[in-house]
Amino acid sequence: MIEGKNFLITGSQPWDTQIGSTIKNTAVELSKKNNVIFLNTPIDYKGYYAKEVDPINAYRKKMIKEKLTPVRKLGNTFWVLDCPFMVFPVGQLPTPLFNFFNMWNNKKIAKYLKKVLPDFGFEKYFLITDMDIYRSLYLKELLNPELFIFYKRDHIIDEPYWLKHGYKCEKELVEKSDIVLANSLYFANQLRDWNSNIYDLETGVNLELYDFDGARKIPEDIKPIKKPIIGYTGALLTSRLDIDLLYFVAQQRPDYSLVLVGPEDPQFEKHDLHKLDNVYFLGRKEVEELPDYISSFDVCINPQVINKLTIGNYPLKIDEYLAMGRPVIATPTETMKHIFDKYSFLPNDREEYLRMLDQAIAESNDPEKVKERVVFGRSHSWANSVAKIYNAIEKTLAKRASEKA
After folding, report:
1. Cα(217)–Cα(59) distance, integer angstroms
2. What is the pTM of this model?
3. Quick one: 200 and 234 in the same domain?
């Protein structure tokens, strides 16, 4: 067990993200036994001067403009550290300019960290970078942490912002890392040629929040909706979800209510799903509200399209669905087949999707099946996930010590 150590975390997701986050939950779990500083991603100049500012950038902009304290203490051993400066947006720059300005960004972040980390007693620390393949590209060399750990929890390098330079940067980060963590076996196998010291983790569920035995209430905007309810929670993105499948299911099962909880991308906002009487878009909800929504669903779904972005990812929502005892129907991605096949329905075509949907509704409240789902969902706790990180660190340090002996 790793206890009393220092962990610095950098990431592609800011702390104030309004969706569920692997790295945020991991940071909280690490802080139960260790000191943790979560570096909030700095805003870039483009975001700072944009006319339309999202809530996350609004806070970072206000923090810089009003010179607010950059330290937020969230616990006795847990701090969020904001960056009181801007960096350059580099994603679309030609390679020579990207290399120059990305190095400039890295140096600016490293200089700031070198200045403030001693105030927290962080002379020695483990640095975990969560998919921050640009801003953390040179931090190993610039900061010289005790261990440099790269965590791949999603396939972002084929998304537009990362497409130009992402593959090269991810490869470079993986090759130089002391430890590589991947939240699925698919990702681990993908990266193994670049680094042999790689560990696949099964990320988890917040057991305190997603407590099947806890008191639940039916949300007000769910109460008028007719049962049975087929529900989804999460961002509604056409790059990751099969919007045509959703439309097909809603049309073919007009007596079922399809409830979608989460923010929509422009394609979802314009889609004919909005014209169907049995489809309900309830918008973004606070993370703390989601268990009440999930417990109100008869069946939970994750209708992903299979592409480079989704084929190997680990969907956190599946553990959340199962921990709340709900039956799950999902696209048979590699992770779903590898981990969740015994506890979810994985249809291979549209007709099978309808048959499995009917079956899932029929057994949604079967006591034995509910118990099986809850037990399995709860087995994927953040404590178990972080224990695997501790194991990776202990093995790496032991090997390093034996090599020096």
Report:
1. 32
2. 0.86
3. no
**Are residues 374 and 389 both part of a single domain?**
no
Q: Are 345 and 361 spatial neighbours (Cβ–Cβ below 8 Å)?
A: no
Cβ neighbourhood burial of 383 (10 Å; 0-12, 13-18, 19+): exposed
Examine the pLDDT at 330 and tell me if it is beyond 90. yes
DSSP structure string for 67-109? T--SEEEEETTEEEE--SS-B---TTS-HHHHHHHHHHHHHHH
Residue 219 domain-assigned (yes or no): no
The pLDDT of residue 178 = 98
Provide, rounded to the nearest whole percent, the portion of the chain with pLDDT above 70. Answer: 99
260 and 312 assigned to the same domain: yes
> What's the confidence (pLDDT) of residue 16?
85
Domain region containing 302? 229-379
Task: Please tell me the distance from the alpha carbon of residue 115 to that of residue 119, in angstroms, as a whole number.
Answer: 8
The reply to whether 198 and 177 lie within a common domain is: yes
φ, ψ of residue 49 to 5 degrees: the values are -100, 5
- The whole-angstrom separation of Cα 119 and Cα 58 is 27
* Contact indicator for 266, 238 with CB cutoff of 8 Å: no
Other Cβ atoms less than 10 A from the Cβ of 172: the count is 14
Neighbours of 267 (CB within 10 A): 13
Tell me, yes or no, whether 195 and 289 share the same domain.
no
Residue 366 lies in a domain: yes
Per residue in 229-240, is it b (16+ CB within 10 Å) or e — as a string? bbbbbbbbbeeb
17 burial type by CB count under 10 A (0-12 exposed, 13-18 middle, 19+ buried): middle
> For the residues 57-61, what does the mean pLDDT come to?
85
CATH number of the domain to which 362 belongs: 3.40.50.2000
Q: Is the predicted pLDDT of residue 405 greater than 80, yes or no?
A: no
